From TrEMBL:
Xylose isomerase-like TIM barrel domain ranges (all copies): 39-302
Species for this entry: Streptomyces solicathayae
Source domain of life: Bacteria
GO molecular function, one term: isomerase activity
Keywords, sorted A to Z: Isomerase
InterPro entries cross-referenced by the UniProt entry: IolE/XylAMocC-like, Xyl_isomerase-like_sf, Xyl_isomerase-like_TIM-brl
Protein name: Sugar phosphate isomerase/epimerase
C-alpha cells in the first residue's frame, strides 16, 4: 500500500458517529431510539468512536458505560455541553455545574474533548426569538473571556480540551462571527469544532476556514446540507429545528460541502483529528438511521477515511 493510496490517505483522521445521527437530541424522549439500540447499530455500521450526546442519554455511571462500549468495540471521543456565556458572570456557576457533570463522565471513559455549543438566540422548536441575534460589544467580551476561562478550567481540572462548535441560530455562526470569535480567543485555551454542515448552513466555506485557521481546528463534525431545502429555509427564515424536520441536513454525498476536499485539508494540517459524523434527523423513524449510517461509513471509506 503506497502513502498516497485511498486506504491510507487520511491516516490522521479518526472517524466516528454520534447519537445525533440516530435522531437523538434529548436525554430522554419517546421519539428517540433506546441507547442500547444506538450502541448496537453504530458499532454494526462500522464506527469505532462515538460521542456521549445529551448528558443522560447514555449511562452516566462510568463503569457501566465503559462495559457497554468496550463489549461493542467502541470508544468515546467527546462529551457535549451547552453554554450561554455571553450572558456574563451571572451564568458561570450554573454553566460550570453542567460542564463538570459532562467532563467527569467524559474523562472517566477516556474522552479527550468537550464540544461546546453556544445557546440559541431563537427557540429551535417554536421559532420564538429569545434575544437579539447580534451581540453587543460587552456580550462579545463576556463570550470570549468566559470561554477562555472555561477552556482553562476544563484543562486544569479534567485534562480535556474544549472545542467550540459554530451552530445555526447561535451567535457563533457565519464566517464573520467565527473569525471574530477565533481572533478574540487564546489558541492555547480555545479550539474549534468545525461542523461542516452548520458552517455551510450559515454560508461558510469549510476548506477556506481550515486553510486560514488551521491551527485552531481541534475537531470535526461531518455533515452536509441540501442546498435546495436550505434556500427555502433561508427564504422563509425558518428556525433550525423545523429546518431539520424538513431534511435540510442530508445524507452524504448528496449535499454540500463536498467532504473529500474538507478531509484532505484536515489531513494536510498534520495533526490527529476526530471527524464525527452527525446527520441531524430529529425526529425520525427508528429504522431510518442505521442504513444511512452504514452507507455513510462506506462512502467515507471510499474517501480514504
Amino acid at each position: 500500500m503506497t502513502p498516497t493510496s485511498p486506504q491510507s490517505s487520511l491516516s490522521r483522521i479518526r472517524i466516528g458517529s454520534a447519537p445525533d445521527s440516530w435522531g437523538v437530541w434529548f436525554p430522554d424522549d419517546p421519539r428517540q431510539v433506546p441507547w442500547q439500540r444506538f450502541l448496537d447499530e453504530v458499532a454494526r455500521a462500522g464506527y469505532g468512536w462515538i460521542e456521549l450526546g445529551p448528558y443522560g442519554y447514555l449511562p452516566t455511571d462510568p463503569a457501566r458505560l465503559t462495559e457497554e462500549t468496550e463489549r461493542r468495540g467502541l470508544r468515546v471521543s467527546a462529551g457535549t455541553v451547552f453554554t450561554g456565556l455571553h450572558h456574563g458572570p451571572a451564568v458561570w456557576e450554573r454553566t460550570w455545574a453542567h460542564v463538570a457533570d459532562n467532563a467527569v463522565l467524559a474523562r472517566a471513559v477516556g474522552a479527550e474533548h468537550l464540544v461546546v455549543i453556544p445557546s440559541f438566540w431563537r427557540d429551535d422548536k417554536t421559532g420564538e426569538v429569545l434575544e437579539d441575534r447580534t451581540l453587543t460589544a460587552e456580550q462579545w467580551h463576556h463570550l470570549t473571556s468566559l470561554t477562555e476561562r472555561l477552556g482553562q478550567e476544563v484543562q486544569d481540572r479534567f485534562g480535556l480540551r474544549i472545542v467550540v462548535h459554530p451552530h445555526a441560530d447561535t451567535h457563533i455562526d457565519t464566517e464573520e462571527n467565527v473569525a471574530r470569535f477565533l481572533d478574540a480567543t487564546d489558541p492555547e485555551l480555545v479550539a474549534l469544532c468545525l461542523d461542516t454542515g452548520h458552517y455551510a448552513y450559515c454560508g461558510g466555506d469549510s476548506v477556506k476556514l481550515i486553510e486560514t485557521y488551521g491551527e485552531r481546528i481541534g475537531y470535526l463534525h461531518l455533515k452536509q446540507v441540501d442546498p435546495e431545502i436550505l434556500a427555502r429555509v433561508v427564504a422563509e427564515e425558518l428556525p433550525f429545528g423545523p429546518a431539520v424536520a424538513r431534511g435540510v441536513m442530508c445524507e452524504p454525498p448528496a449535499g454540500v460541502p463536498a467532504l473529500e476536499p474538507v478531509l484532505a485539508a484536515a489531513q494536510a494540517l498534520g495533526v490527529e483529528l476526530f471527524a464525527i459524523v452527525e446527520q441531524d434527523m430529529y425526529p425520525c423513524p427508528p429504522d431510518k438511521p442505521y442504513p444511512i449510517a452504514e452507507r455513510t461509513r462506506r462512502f467515507l471509506r471510499s474517501c480514504g477515511a
